[in-house]
Amino acid sequence: xxxxxxxxxxxxxxxxxxxxxxxxxxxxxxxxxxxxxxxxxxxxxxxxxxxxxxxxxxxxxxxxxx
Length: 66
Known about the structure:
Layout: E1 3-10, E2 13-20, H1 21-65
């Protein structure tokens, strides 16, 4: 598999850094999985908060009509 070359900044200037494609794929997959997990956490928090608000709304209306 061919290598991918990226420029890395050092105090002596930039120098090429060789990365094997499979390493790059692993890094990208790991990052995207972490981002998906964070997004799912945020979505579940929003859903739970909405459920709490709806439950409060229902309880309020029950107390009004009882």
